[in-house]
């Protein structure tokens, strides 16, 4: 008999409540700190509240969950009947969340496989759903991890930000920081690659950058069966327009999610973020 494998992730997967409930996925929240007040992502603070704080130049930082928070979730999942856990998290290059999960896994009452997916937002969300479907089909932990790792490797993410200032402050732009120097007036297109945010192209205006983002997504999706996620922060009109264009132009589109990113990613990307995740089936 195959073991019952439970799925755990963190709040940066940005999955809606319905699929979380349907697949029995547990979520460990990251924390957003505004000034000297700490809030759990997903339950105690919204992305618009973070956008407002950033626009008013309040100090905004984020922090990983503690190992104790992971331990509590692992113990609860084990108590509910799981024989094993696959714990899937955002890129270890972006957060210490993966490390905290590894520490907690050593004390778990059931075996835990902790996976650095190398992705974030709905790139992580689609990866988590692939793992959940594999677990529900009776896959063992190794097979569940393999399904997740394949989905993560096949998934890509591209995004536009109005300014690199927020990414610079949080130390999240890697090599792009040196490339841009003080040229913050340039509108950058970035991508997620090998767990890091990298500069893809430099565009002079916001409208040209968003048009280019659309072209990249259409080209990368091709005619494959894909799920897309259009993310934004304080840019709902832009996101809706881009989503409508992609519905018309991506022939293999099977699922499209349009959502505002959560507070953690919002804190680092800033208002005006517009991103697209491409995840082939």
Model description:
Helices cover 41% and strands 26% of the residues. The chain has helices spanning 17-23, 47-55, 67-79, 97-105, 122-136, 141-154, 165-169, 175-180, 206-221, 236-249, 263-269, and strands at residues 5-10, 26-28, 31-34, 37-40, 60-63, 84-89, 112-116, 156-160, 187-193, 196-203, 226-232, 253-260, 274-280. The chain is an alpha/beta fold and 281 residues long. The longest helix has 16 residues, at 206-221. The model has no long low-confidence stretch (mean pLDDT 90). Helix 4 links the parallel strand 6 and strand 7. The strands form three sheets. Strands 10-9-8-13-11-12 form a six-stranded mixed β-sheet, with helices on both faces. It has eleven helices and 13 strands.
Number of helices: 11
Helix content: 40-55%
Write the H/E string, N to C. Answer: EHEEEHEHEHEHHEHHEEHEHEHE
Backbone structural class: alpha/beta
Please summarize what this structure is.
The protein is of the alpha/beta class. It has helices at 17-23, 47-55, 67-79, 97-105, 122-136, 141-154, 165-169, 175-180, 206-221, 236-249, 263-269, and strands at residues 5-10, 26-28, 31-34, 37-40, 60-63, 84-89, 112-116, 156-160, 187-193, 196-203, 226-232, 253-260, 274-280. Strand 11 (226-232), helix 10 and strand 12 (253-260) form a beta-alpha-beta unit.
Identify the notable features of this structure and list them briefly.
single chain; alpha/beta; 6-stranded mixed beta sheet; 4-stranded parallel beta sheet; 11 helices; 41% helix
């Amino acid at each position: 008999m195959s073991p019952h494998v439970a799925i755990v992730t963190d709040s940066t997967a940005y999955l809606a409540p319905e699929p979380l409930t349907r697949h029995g996925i547990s979520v460990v929240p990251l924390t957003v700190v505004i000034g000297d007040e700490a809030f759990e992502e997903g339950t105690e603070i919204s992305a618009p509240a973070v956008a407002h704080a950033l626009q008013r130049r309040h100090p905004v930082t984020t922090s990983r969950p503690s190992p104790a928070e992971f331990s509590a979730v692992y113990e609860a999942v084990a108590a509910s009947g799981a024989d094993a856990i696959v714990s899937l998290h955002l890129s270890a290059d972006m957060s210490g969340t993966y490390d905290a999960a590894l520490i907690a896994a050593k004390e778990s009452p059931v075996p835990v496989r902790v996976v650095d997916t190398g992705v974030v937002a709905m790139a992580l969300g689609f990866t988590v759903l692939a793992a959940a479907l594999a677990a529900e089909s009776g896959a063992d932990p190794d097979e569940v991890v393999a399904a997740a790792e394949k989905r993560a490797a096949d998934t890509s993410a591209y995004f536009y930000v109005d300014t690199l200032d927020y990414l610079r402050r949080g130390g999240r732009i890697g090599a792009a920081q040196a490339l841009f120097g003080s040229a913050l007036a340039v509108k950058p297109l970035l991508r997620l690659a090998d767990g890091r945010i990298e500069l893809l192209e430099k565009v002079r205006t916001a409208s040209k950058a968003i048009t280019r983002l659309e072209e990249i997504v259409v080209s990368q999706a091709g005619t494959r069966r894909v799920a897309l996620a259009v993310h934004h922060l304080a840019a709902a009109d832009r996101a809706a327009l881009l989503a409508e264009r992609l519905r018309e132009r991506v022939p293999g589109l099977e699922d499209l999610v349009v959502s505002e990113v959560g507070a953690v990613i919002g804190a680092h990307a800033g208002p005006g973020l517009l991103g697209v995740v491409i995840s082939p089936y």
